[in-house]
């Protein structure tokens, strides 16, 4: 009789991390959420107070937990905040990622790290796993450096790049859909870029892919997303319609109207997901199914 597998999730109180923890519990994983906050998130999961920027604390958490696998979904992911607070972004996104990967390597533990399409400058696309990185903002720089650091100390790690994750949180984690729904409900007109293209994925599909990879042997980079890329304006109109709001509440943002003080964004976040379609049994969905599945997570939140 095999023992129950154990999963340790850094950033388990975030939007992706909570969904991953919830799904892992349902799939029979003994689940531990590591974050520096004391509030409980998933009732069936254990909580561990861990500051990812402290190497000794990370080492102790992994050593004492003895997990079968570790997922690092922790990040300072607010692009504008990362631009303002670069020292903190580096500590969390680069040093923290390296501490987790190094501890996993030394203890021969399966490791998955969540990265971003922000490592690319968005001048071309679609981007495959082997394309050269060239980030435009500090957040993207930290993710590019983290990828090098993680693979440098843990060559057997899996690094999943994502473009835009859609869904509602399990509890209070931040997400694009939450902010959009709140603004539309308040009657606000939303302006969105026509030039920023992304390859979205719903949070459930992402988590299913992560959990599928944990028992396997795949290592290296993997781009995960839906089978279509879309600009933010068209995507937001589609989502608004599915949420029951008039689509004319979403208006295009002219290039000259871009907010001042905003960190630069890459234009073409177009990910080539051919490798993921080959490696994963978890299906990469088309855009409509991705949106429908993302909106269905609202039932979890409510």
Question: What distinguishing features does this structure have?
Answer:
single chain; alpha/beta; seven-stranded parallel sheet; 302 residues; two-stranded parallel ribbon; 11 helices
3D architecture notes:
This protein is an alpha/beta fold and 302 residues long. It contains eleven helices and 13 strands. The protein has helices at 15-26, 55-65, 79-84, 86-106, 138-153, 176-185, 203-213, 232-243, 274-279, 287-296, 298-301, and strands at residues 6-10, 30-35, 46-49, 69-72, 110-116, 158-162, 164-166, 190-193, 197-198, 200-202, 220-223, 230-231, 250-253. The strands form four sheets. A seven-stranded parallel β-sheet has the order 3-2-1-4-5-6-11, sandwiched between helices. A two-stranded parallel ribbon has the order 7-10. A two-stranded parallel ribbon has the order 8-13. Helix 4 packs parallel to helix 5 (138-153). The radius of gyration is 19 Å and the shape is globular. The protein starts with 5 loop residues before the first strand and ends with a helix. The model has no long low-confidence stretch (mean pLDDT 93).
